[in-house]
Input
Amino acid sequence: MDIMYTSELRPLIFAGGSGMKNLIDEIASVVQRDHGLHIVVPVTDDGGSTGEIVRAIGGVALGDIRQVLLRLGHFAASALPAEQAKACRALDAFLNHRLPCDAAAAKAEWQALMSCSFVGPGDHPLLQDLHPEQVAMLRLFLKPFHARTQRAPAAAFCFSNGCLGNFFLAGAASAYCLDTGILALEFLFRIPSNFRVHPACLAPGNARTVGLGLAMEDGDVILGQNNISHPPVCGGSAHVVEKDAERQDPLPAKPSDLFFIDEWERRIEPEVNPRVLEQVLACNVVIYGRGSFLSSILPSLRFPAVTEAIRARADIPKVFIANGVNDRETSHLTAGRAPHAMTVCDMITLMLSILHVPDAAYLEYVTHVLLPENGKVSEGNLRAAYPGLTVETIPCLKGKQQPTYDDAVIVDYLKSLVEPEAFLPEAKLILSDDVHI
Output
């Protein structure tokens, strides 16, 4: 199947790994190959498989990077010849494979994989249908990761529910650098060179890890992204993240600020990935979401250089895509201990506050808000609170249990914002003196 690249859409998306899967496919199918699609993902996750890597080895969280890379690979495979597409599907299955939840069984399966020679697809059942160059690349990064787990400074590395794709990227970061692992997967999946995933930051800098903290209006704090978003439920495993919103309690108080922490839970200010700033200059629409509000969207925007760069692009639309339902991150207890579901207006207000946006400057950061038809999240006082903000309702797919956007309609709407392009072709970033690209 040939992929048609027909649009002038050049989006930069700030989102997480799981909330954007279908929208990625829709946007990728229309953007031009020479402009491409760029997605910025957070690196603060400390739960599940990626959390164990961060705990034992350090570095940035890899789960969202893997999810978006594999989704782009899934899209790219649709345009490949049958044999290449088959090998890419096999690679996708390998990198998405999870070891058993039982720690002993997981370690045994991992050791069996590491004991094979990786000289060809026949060495191990998981390697079947892979191309020899894929097998060689897996060996190049998985073997260093295995060696690194043998000398983990903390307690012995736990392979329970471990994701092989996360191990692959961690091996690249340990032996070379994270960018090397990202480029390797883009090559193996034949992802177009301008379809890129950008970690919000590439390394913790002077810290060993980059985590997330949330301050509350009552003075309390929650430390760790998993505790903010998906705290373990009774009887759950630390290595299996519970994502069912109905099983999660709301936040204990109204959130007021979001910040980065190191492994000692001290506040830090890591450096932003410079490629994110480059893409703010190159794009013609900035998209916030979809995804978890506090843990997927806001962390990548929390860098002062990013917010300043977005502010300087007064020539492009900046679109917030609201979720269809509230979850733990957008629900909290009031001072009287009553549950409160945030409205979209509440979210925009909190976002602007966390990013330290002056009250009168909101249109420099958000120009459009998209809401799902029959969505379960109230709009609130959005239009009155933010005059000039364009609010649009997008149709949803029929027959779904939860409000689910028709992503083709979203893409058509985004195209309408930039065709004909309203911004100047030679637009330049005008940044404050302390921000550099």
About this structure: Confidence is low (pLDDT under 50) at residues 1-7, 421-437. The chain is about 35% helix and 15% strand.
